Amino acid sequence: MELTWHGHSTWHVTVGETDLLIDPFFDNPKTDLEPDDVDAPDYVLLTHGHADHIAHAEAFPDATLVATPELVSYCQDNFGHENAVGGMGMNLGGTVECGDAYVTMHRADHTNGIMTEYDTSAGMPAGFIISNTKPTQVADEDSTTFYHAGDTGLMTEMRDVIGPHLEPDAVAVPIGDHFTMGPWQAAIAVDWLDVDYAFPQHYDTFPPIEQDPADFEREVTATGSDAEVVVLEGDESFTL
Questions:
Q1: pTM exceeds 0.90, yes or no
Q2: Any bridge partners for residue 84, and if so which?
């Protein structure tokens, strides 16, 4: 599994022959790319409907959307998308097969209004657990799993459900504070999830979320977690 961070919460994930693009937003200082520079993904995954997460979804109208039914409907009406998993999107707790990947949607603690002339709800905000094997009760030592936590505060489901049962090997957590967790709560999330690798995301995009990722590294160490914090530069890749 190859993970590429394009800044903010935008990730390109390759599982086998399948390309997934999460929360496409290229107007951020960590990337040099424009949407046209990105190879068209097979799937676009949207955690929620805020503008800094769906801004460039319209650049990939041929991709299959993976999002809540409310957000799928909005994108189909406004961006020209025709395809969605299940024909209508998915919802919390569900797992869908996306080419060579299995994608499980889990809730995130955040808000989810689409702020336009006509404010509307995009359903529950979410995070995605992406694996190369279907999650089951039996742990699969050969599976590789990446958890994109979305925009979220710290929540005990990370400790009680996602960590022990969905078993991510790596997590991307927001550290920007103000709108999401900051470094110290994100570090607790990493510890609870018991991952091998932790990537900071959703920081340095706007003045309210400017952070030094070294603070996050220190906080993870302070929890006693064995996770390795990997601070990627924009458009840098990591093989999981």
A1: yes
A2: 65
